[in-house]
Each structure stands twice: as C-alpha cells, then as structure tokens.
Design brief:
With 768 residues, the protein is α+β, with helices and mostly antiparallel strands. 58% of the residues lie in helices and 17% in strands.
C-alpha cells in the first residue's frame, strides 16, 4: 500500500503541475484555421521521392513564414505528402495560391515584340509570353540569364517615389549580382524604345514585370549593388505574397492540393464548450449512478474518476498530442471505460463477501483484495482489446480522427491506473476506519444488489434456447445487410472526394430556396441541407441564425464564391464556418484504409483472443463483434446517415466495446469450468451470464450517460458519432448474451477441449 500511495501521489502531483503550467495544443477544428494537404508529383527531371518532398517542405516553410501566420505547422506525412496547418487563417484561397505555386523565378532578355500567341519554351530556352504593360501584345524572350536561386532576399515595400505603389525589392547573392549587372548592362546598350532595352522578370510562365533600362543605366556595366525592384501595380497583399514566393524559392517538384479544410474560430469555440459541458454532465451522471449503486465505494470511485480526468488531460498535454474535436469525444468516452474496471472490482467484491459469509468478520479488505486479484485478467484483456482498436485508428486515420485514437489510448491506460491503483488505495485506507468496519452496509459490497440477488435465486436458462437466439440474431443481421444492399451507404466527402462547405446565415434559411439558389448558380446536383433556429454564439442580440451545408463535387474557389453569392441573395450575408475539400485520389485512399483498418481489427482481436482463450471462445467473441459492426453499419444505411472517418472511429470503438463485454463473460465461463466439475457447459454458461450481468448493465449505464450527453450537446459533428456508439454499446451488451455465449457453447459441443491428463501420486502424467 505504501508503494501505491507514493505512486498515486506522484502521478497526481505531476498531473496537477502540468495542467496548471502547460497550455493544451488545440487542433485547427477547435482553434480555427486552415489545413492543407499537398502531394508532390514527379517533375520533368526530378522524381517525387522522400528527399524531394523534404526539400519542397523547406521551401514551403519559408513561404509560410512570409505570410505572417502565427504558429504555423508543416510536416511530411508519408513519402509524398506535406501537411500544412495555418491557425487563424479563415480564407484559404490566397494561402493555397502562394503555397502551391511552383514559383520558378527567371530573368530574361527581351528580343522583340510579337502579336502572339503565347507558347511554350523552345529548345533553346526562348519563349513568347504576354506583355504586362500592353494588353494584347506579346514579348519574345531569350533564354533565362538568371534564376530565383540567385535571390538572397525579397521584401514588399511601399515606394513613396513611385506614386505610393507597392513594389518588391530584391537583393542578389554575390555571384548573381554580377550576372544581374551584365544582364542590365547589355539591355542598356539598346536604343531607347527598342524592346531589347527591357528585362523581363518571369514567375511561373507569367511576366510580372518588364522594366526598360533608364537613361542613367550605363551600357555594359548595368545596375550594380546587387539589387533590383519588381514593379507591377501590386496591392500590399499581392506584393507580400510575391515576396514570400521569391524568398522561399522554387519548389523542386510540382505539388497538388489533395485535401483542404477550414474551420472558423466560432465553430471551434462552440465545440469546446459543448464537449466540456458533455464531459461535466456525463461525469456527474456517471458519478451519481456509481454512488447510488455502490455507496461509499462508489464515492471513492467517483473521486478516482475525477483524478482520472486530471491525469488523462495532463498526459495528453505532456505528450504534446494535438487535442481535436474527435479527440475530446475520445477523452469523454474513456470515462465509461474507466467506470468499467471499477464496476468489475466492486461486483466481484460483492460475490467474495457473500461467499465468505460470517467468516468475513469485520475485515472488509479481504473480499476487496481477492476481487482485485481475480478481475485482473478480465480487466487487462478488455483494456488491451480497446487499445488494439485505438492503435488501428492512429495508424490508418488522418487529421482530427487520429487525435481520437491518441486520446482513447491515453484514456484506456489512465483508467487502468485509476482503478487498479488509486481506487484500490482509497478503498484500502477507507475500509480500515473503525466507523466503516462497524457499518459494512455503507460500503456497498456487503450485499449482492437487487439484480444479482434475483439472478442468484433463479438463473435464467438462456442456453437451452441457444438456437432460437442465434436464428433471431441472424434474422436481424439479414435486415442490416438488406439496408446496405437496398439503400446503400451514404459515403461522406472524405471517402468519395468533393467539397462540403458549411455557411452561417443571419436568419433561418428555407431548404428549397437554398437548393434552388445553388442550382441556379450552376450546381443542380449539389446536396444542400439547412438548419435554423440556433441563437448567435458571438454574444450578439441572440437572434436566430440559419446554417446551410452544401456538398458538391470537387470545385475551385471561384465556384465556391458563386455558391456563396447565390446563398447571400436568399439568406442575407453568409459566413463560411467550415470548408472541407478532399481530392478524389485521397478519398479512394481513405476508403481503402478504412476497409483495411476494419479487417485488421477483426484479425487482431481474433489472434489476441485465441492466445488468451481457446479458439472456440475467440471465434464466438469475434463473430459477435462482427455482427455488432454490421448492425451499426446497417442502421446507418437505413437511416441514410453519412459514413465518414468519424464513423470509422465509432466503428472501431464499437469493436473494442463489443469484445470487452464478451471477454468478461467468457473469462467467467472459463473460471467456472475449472471448478465446475461435471456441470454441463450450457448450465455453466447460464451462470456466467447471470454472474456478470450486473457488471454489464452498470458499465453500460455509465457509458450511456456519457454518450447521451455527447449526442445532445456535442453538436452536429458528434451527433452521428454518438448515435453509432449508443447503438454499438446496446448491441454489444445484447450480442454477448445472445450471440457470443450460444455460439461458444455450440462450438465447444462440436469441438470439446481435450481432457487434462490425470496425474499419478508420483507426479507423472499418465497416458490416456
């Protein structure tokens, strides 16, 4: 107990210090901003491998620094992807233009003017491009004499001597300064008015400026000092963007945008408030329920749950993990997992107290200590199966959903510490008190509880009708499969590619009017959904506002501007609250990853359970889990709800919950078989269900409190997630009793375990 006390005190003190001194790292879906995922492509001479992607990353980092975005984040993902996060940036168009351009800057001599048209570069490097100073005219350019690699620095400057216009001042490196002087010196030798007197500054096949050498520039020696100035009637933002491009240099390989997501700060603030409120309400309801059922030990478990929340949050912050909206959901959801371990211990302690009877005396610690020892196997198995699901989410998910896997894994590990160390320590200290020892009824373990008492008096003979249960579950499964086949799955934009933009209007919007406006803008196939009646969240006059969600195939920013203008005509001024763009290639990749993740989840659970149990038990548990997953998918098919990465997170969590329930009951069945003598297996299975049903119900209630709070308060983005998990938890409890156990009994009847070899008195195993 001393070591447990020291460990608990150290962990709690460290967690409190981290919480008070270290701010959390919020994801863009909570703090607002833009996330862009770029994919490098093979160039004419350079292959887009990891090295080229790293070089492109450094170029992009310089460009982003030039944009002036606070705390930007750039990282390589895989071999050819770059993830750019720009907090606080509401309009991604300018950033995408600056970040994604190749930005090949070249300086050319002008050999003449032609009437057009513009064309590609010739083999000798000459080309014809539009003249920026004369609309309709074109410049014939010689081969590049200087490239952007020779530019040392670029700065946007408001030039008071140039009519107050913005320019970009360049400073060349030492070697490039001489080249610039020769280039301008040769141009200065041409006669005034001759096109050859001009020097063209070209950025990505566009002449941004083509100044003529002034009379004061000496022929032959040109402009010295290693500096130049790009003029072109720029606005301040255009000059800064151009300076950022030139300063960063050219990308070594082309890049394309495969994903783009923008979240407004208001939406993120609402998500934080809603998730925090859901966590408080869920934790409060769960704590009250635990205290009502387990009395004094329930109070101690609630204290341990509060400390669990503190430790989990501190672990997320200390690890530097990004806290996302699905991550917050995982954090709240893990409360239910933390309850499970406590319930397992308390229910087993009730059994041990009843088994000891009068021999228990006044020492209440004895049944509790025995309970902690006996439930360790089931607790470890249930936590490991959930960790497997969380690990698959971390590997195969992307963006905010990956944060769900991280917080869920942290929550699972922390719940183990909370239940097996902190709750045990608090219970051991409390049960030593004389006042508690004189009144064992206040502890909550001195009685079996109403449900367990009824089940003890009359054990339901469920396994006698196992064929009926299996047929009923099969019929329900056929209904779910029919939904998938008949209605089909409504894949979200993440799995199909396309663009979803969520707008906020000043007043509620009629759905038909919004659809007609979007169709008139040229998007008759767009999926338009509206909600209304919500009060403004910015502290305004509280007037109701409307929300419009528009989903279209992959479109550019110009098309989105047309949609926004169309909605403005029917709804008044609208603001973009969320903008998600997924390329078709990435959508197909994410869909493939989702299928692989689910397949690996099934295989991983089967392998682990086969190691921990007989293959018959493992097969029964995995079959029940697969049934739960298909039923949830079928439910979403019938309801027409979207299937996206958040739904994938819910499915993998259902996998963990389902296996968790089955493991607890199968573990009890295995224990009963070891000491059950000649009792038939179906009867033992009935006893296992009856003995673990209170735990199943109480744990399920703890999870349901949290999920209902998330479903009601979590907002649109978490409602479907919570609905999927609510269905999964209920179905998981039912499938354990009506699928896993009947199937395990049936498989054991067909493939009985080999009888153990009898042991002689000398200790030598006899041959059977």
């Amino acid at each position: 107990m001393l070591w447990r006390a020291l460990l608990a005190l150290a962990v709690v003190a460290l967690s409190l210090w981290i919480t008070l001194t270290t701010p959390p790292r919020l994801g863009l879906d909570l703090r607002g901003g833009t996330r862009i995922v770029l994919q490098t492509e093979d160039g004419p001479t350079v292959r887009a491998d990891a090295a080229a992607t790293d070089r492109a990353l450094e170029v992009l980092r310089k460009r982003v620094d030039g944009l002036g975005v606070a705390e930007p984040s750039l990282a390589r993902s895989g071999e050819r992807r770059i993830v750019v996060e720009l907090p606080g940036l509401r309009d991604p168009r300018e950033a995408a233009d600056v970040i994604g351009r190749t930005a090949q800057l070249t300086f050319h001599t002008v050999t003449g003017t032609v009437q057009g048209p513009a064309g590609p570069a010739a083999k000798d490097g000459t080309r014809v491009l539009a003249d920026p100073d004369a609309p309709g005219a074109f410049l014939a350019l010689g081969a590049p004499s200087l490239t952007g690699d020779g530019v040392k620095s670029a700065e946007a400057v408001l030039d008071a001597t140039n009519g107050g216009g913005w320019t970009v001042d360049l400073a060349f490196r030492d070697s490039a300064a001489g080249t610039w002087a020769r280039l301008t010196g040769d141009a200065a030798c041409a006669a005034p008015g001759d096109p050859a007197r001009r020097v063209a500054i070209v950025l990505d096949d566009r002449v941004v400026s083509a100044p003529a050498m002034q009379q004061g520039v000496p022929c032959g020696s040109g402009i010295g000092g290693g500096s130049a100035q790009i003029t072109g009637g720029f606005s301040g933002q255009e000059a800064r963007d151009l300076a950022a491009l030139v300063q960063g240099g050219a990308l070594p390989v082309p890049v394309t945008t495969v994903e783009q997501s923008t979240v407004g700060p208001t939406l993120g603030a609402e998500a934080i408030r809603a998730s925090a409120l859901a966590a408080v309400i869920g934790l409060a309801c769960t704590g009250l329920f635990v205290m009502l059922v387990y009395r004094l030990l329930g109070v101690l478990a609630t204290v341990a749950l509060l400390l669990y929340g503190l430790i989990s949050y501190a672990a997320v912050v200390a690890l530097g993990a990004t806290l996302t909206l699905p991550g917050l959901a995982g954090f709240v959801l893990a409360i239910g997992i933390a309850v499970d371990a406590n319930v397992l211990v308390f229910e087993r302690a009730r059994e041990e107290y009843a088994a000891l009877g009068r021999t228990a005396g006044r020492d209440l610690r004895r049944p509790l200590e025995t309970a902690f020892g006996k439930v360790w196997s089931a607790v470890a198995d249930s936590h490991i199966t959930t960790l497997l699901a969380a690990g698959l989410l971390f590997v195969f998910a992307s963006g905010p959903v990956k944060g769900f896997g991280v917080t869920l894994a942290i929550g699972v590990v922390t719940s183990l510490l909370s239940a097996m160390v902190i709750t045990r320590l608090l219970a051991d200290l409390t049960l030593r008190l004389p006042a508690v020892r004189r009144r064992p009824s206040v502890t909550g373990i001195a009685g079996l509880g109403r449900l367990r008492t009824r089940l003890t008096r009359r054990v339901p003979r469920l396994m006698a009708h196992r064929r009926r249960w299996l047929l009923s579950c099969g019929a329900l499964l056929l209904v779910a499969l029919a939904g998938i086949g008949v209605r089909g799955l409504e894949f979200g934009v993440e799995f199909t590619g396309g663009r979803v933009v969520q707008y906020t209007a000043e007043r509620p919007v009629d759905a038909d009017e919004a659809r007609a406006a979007v169709a008139d803008a040229g998007f008759p196939d767009a999926v338009v959904q509206t909600t209304g009646g919500a009060e403004a969240a910015d502290g305004g006059d509280g007037a109701a506002r409307g929300e419009v969600s528009v989903r279209v195939r992959e479109t550019g920013d110009e098309e989105q501007r047309d949609i926004r203008e169309a909605l403005t005509r029917v709804a008044g001024p609208v603001e973009v609250e969320r903008d998600d763009l997924i390329g078709p290639s990435l959508g197909g990749e994410l869909r493939t990853h989702a299928t692989i993740a689910l397949g690996l989840a099934v295989v991983a659970q089967l392998l682990y359970l086969t190691v921990r149990f007989r293959w018959t038990y493992a097969t029964a548990a995995v079959a029940a889990m697969t049934q739960d997953v298909l039923l949830v998918v079928g439910l979403f098919a019938w309801l027409g709800k979207p299937v996206d990465s958040v739904f994938l997170a819910a499915l993998l969590t259902v996998v963990g919950y389902s296996v968790n329930d089955s493991v607890v009951v199968l573990d009890r069945l295995r224990e009963l078989r070891r000491r059950g003598g000649r009792i038939p297996l179906p009867d033992l299975a009935d006893r296992a269900v009856a003995q673990t049903l209170p735990r199943t119900v109480n744990t399920g209630m703890g999870a349901l409190f949290v999920l209902v709070a998330l479903a009601v308060l979590g907002g649109d983005s978490l409602t479907d997630f919570s609905v999927a998990l609510l269905a999964g938890v209920v179905l998981g409890m039912a499938s354990t009793v009506f699928t896993a156990m009947p199937l395990a009994v049936a498989l054991e009847a067909r493939h009985p375990a080999p009888a153990p070899a009898p042991v002689s008195r000398r200790g030598v195993g006899a041959v059977v």
